[in-house]
Specification:
Blueprint (H helix, E strand, L loop, with lengths): L3 E17 L2 E15 L2 E7 L9 H9 L2 H5 L4 H7 L4 H18 L3 H5 L7 E2 L2 E3 L4 H10 L5 E5 L5 H11 L4 E5 L9 H10 L4 E3 L19 E3 L18 E4 L1 H4 L2 H13 L3 E4 L6 H10 L5 E2 L17 E2 L2 E2 L9
Parallel strand pairs: 5-6, 6-7, 7-8, 8-9, 9-10, 10-11, 11-12
Antiparallel strand pairs: 1-2, 2-3, 4-14, 13-14
Helix pairs in contact: 1-4, 6-7
Organism: Mesorhizobium intechi
Enzyme class: isomerase
GO molecular function: metal ion binding; racemase and epimerase activity, acting on amino acids and derivatives
Length: about 325
């Protein structure tokens, strides 16, 4: 029987406002792809990202353009060549994984991970703001073991000092979202190291980060916007110490697994991250992240409401997805 595909744009309100160096948002805009066959349905969710030239309408149209090939039975391997890396391919790829698991009765976890899957400790993200406001956010979440702090502007040292003093027992990741410059990176890195920061994520703009090859790394530096697929990794050796794998960048779980394995071969640390989406988007990433060094899959915690059923979060521990959700 031919497959049937549906594509839906959905919006989920964020609890408050989510702010990074490039701007603020009050809702998560996602596209959900559902592929059905023989009484079974698989779903995948993606988050179009303006930073990469994506729009809701553009990603919706890109998936719709694949309707005939999906109906005719395209598999995940062929999909890698049929669609470019990005949000649209992610939604289709994850829907195909879910559909395969539903039809076969074999959980995705069994296909990609050799042992029992476990709950993971995820970072919890603090929005960019003035130092005092960020200290208040950090203080309110000081019981969480891992915080991810959005920075990337003037007065970042004040922000770093404020959050480390407000949450002294938490490990902290700083995410500059390409907001630092050649002029301030050395001083900012040194100060972050003095304050015991665990990791700094994408301090400089992608493609304008060659200085990282020639300056000290007093703490690990992680590529985010600079890495999308496995083919990007060779040029990052010597620049970065770790890479942040996001399904919406890699274009799905299939490509993300390839990226993870190649990154390990080249000696990179692994972070598995997310855009701001629902539990449906996080579910495959939780399985991908089983051996990650850092996990940042807090998207649903930032929402005013999530899908039902959703992932189960207990504090900062996120459990593997129930098969009713995905996989």
């Amino acid at each position: 029987m031919a497959r049937v595909i549906s594509v839906e744009a959905e919006r989920f309100p964020i609890a408050g406002t989510f702010t990074i160096s490039r701007g603020s948002k009050t809702e998560a805009e996602v596209i959900t792809c559902t592929i059905s066959q023989d009484g079974h349905s698989g779903r995948g969710e993606c988050v179009p990202y303006k930073r990469y030239g994506e729009t809701m309408d553009g990603v919706h149209a890109a998936i719709e353009a694949m309707r005939e090939r999906i109906a005719d039975g395209i598999d995940r391997t062929a999909l890698l060549d049929a669609m470019p890396a990005g949000a649209g391919r992610n939604a289709v790829d994850c829907a195909l994984w879910d559909l395969e698991a539903k039809i076969s009765g074999k959980p995705v976890a069994n296909e990609i991970w050799p042992g029992p899957v476990r709950a993971l400790e995820t970072a919890y993200t603090l929005s960019l703001g003035e130092a005092e406001a960020m200290a208040a956010q950090a203080r309110a979440n000081a019981g969480r073991p891992l915080l991810k702090v959005k920075i990337g502007g003037d007065n970042d040292m004040a922000r770093i000092r404020a959050v480390t003093e407000a949450a002294p027992r938490s490990r902290i990741i700083l995410d500059a979202n390409e907001g630092w410059t050649d002029d301030n990176i050395v001083a900012n890195l040194a100060f972050a190291a003095e304050r015991g920061i665990a990791l700094i994520e994408q301090p400089l703009p992608a493609g304008h980060d060659q200085i990282l090859r020639h300056i000290a790394h007093p703490l690990p530096i992680c590529a985010d916007e600079s890495v999308h697929e496995a083919k990007d990794l060779e040029t990052l050796v010597g620049l970065y110490d770790a890479v942040n794998i996001k399904l919406d960048k890699s274009g799905g779980l299939t490509a993300a697994l390839m990226l993870r394995d190649r990154a390990r071969e080249l000696g990179f640390g692994i972070m598995v991250g997310c855009m701001v989406g629902t539990s449906l988007a996080m579910a495959p990433a939780v399985l991908l992240a089983q051996d990650a060094d850092f996990v940042d899959l807090d998207g649903p915690l930032l929402l005013a409401r999530d899908r039902l059923p959703g992932l189960v979060y207990q504090g900062s521990l996120v459990s593997p997805p129930d098969r009713a959700l995905w996989g």
